[in-house]
Automatic annotation (TrEMBL):
Coiled-coil region list: none
Protein name in UniProt: Protein containing cupin domain
InterPro entries: Cupin_2 (IPR013096), RmlC-like_jellyroll (IPR014710), RmlC_Cupin_sf (IPR011051)
Cited SUPFAM superfamilies: RmlC-like cupins
Source species: Flexilinea flocculi
Every Cupin type-2 domain range: 40-114
Alphabetical list of Pfam families matching this protein: Cupin_2 (PF07883)
C-alpha cells in the first residue's frame, strides 16, 4: 500500500506548467486526493489565462501577491462584472462561471487555487496531466513545451 502524503511544496521541487498566458505550479495533484487539487497561479504584469469556465469544479483562490482584476460572467449572462483583488482576499468561482484574473502591477500576481469537484473528477481527465493535455489540444499549445518537472 502506498503511503499517504500530508505535506506538499508550493515552490522548488514541483511540476511547473508554463502556458503562453500564465504559470501553474502544481502543489497537490488530483490523483493524490478524493475530490480536489491545489496549485499556485503566477501571472506576470498584464498576463491572464483565457476567459474560461469549469462545469465540473468550484474554485477557491487565495490572493498572496499583487493586484489583479477579476472578470466574472455567469452562464447565460451577457455582461461581465469586474473586481479588484488584492493579497489576503479569498475568491470563490462557482461551477459554470466564466472567469479570468489579469495581473495589474509590475510584480505580477500570485494566488493559491483550490479546485473542488463535488461530483468527482471528469473520467476523461483522471490526472492533472490528462487535463493539461486536453487544454493544450483545445488551444493549440504543445504539452511537451509547457510541462517542466522540477522534482
Amino acid at each position: 500500500m502506498e503511503k499517504k502524503k500530508y505535506v506538499f511544496e508550493t515552490e522548488g521541487k514541483i511540476i511547473r506548467y508554463r502556458y503562453p498566458t500564465h504559470i501553474n505550479d502544481l502543489t497537490i495533484p488530483r490523483e493524490e486526493t478524493a475530490s480536489s487539487e491545489v496549485f499556485m497561479v503566477l501571472l506576470d504584469e498584464k498576463e491572464a489565462p483565457p476567459f474560461h469556465k469549469h462545469d465540473d469544479a468550484e474554485q477557491i483562490f487565495y490572493m498572496i501577491q499583487g493586484v489583479g482584476k477579476l472578470e466574472i460572467k455567469e452562464d447565460g449572462s451577457s455582461e461581465s462584472e469586474f473586481f479588484e483583488i488584492i493579497p489576503g482576499q479569498v475568491i470563490r468561482i462557482p461551477p459554470h462561471t466564466w472567469h479570468r484574473v489579469t495581473a495589474l502591477n509590475k510584480e505580477g500576481v500570485r494566488y493559491l487555487c483550490v479546485d473542488c469537484f463535488p461530483n468527482g473528477f471528469n473520467p476523461e481527465e483522471p490526472t492533472w496531466d490528462s487535463h493539461v493535455k486536453n487544454l493544450c489540444d483545445q488551444l493549440g499549445w504543445d504539452f511537451n513545451i509547457i510541462r517542466e518537472d522540477r522534482r
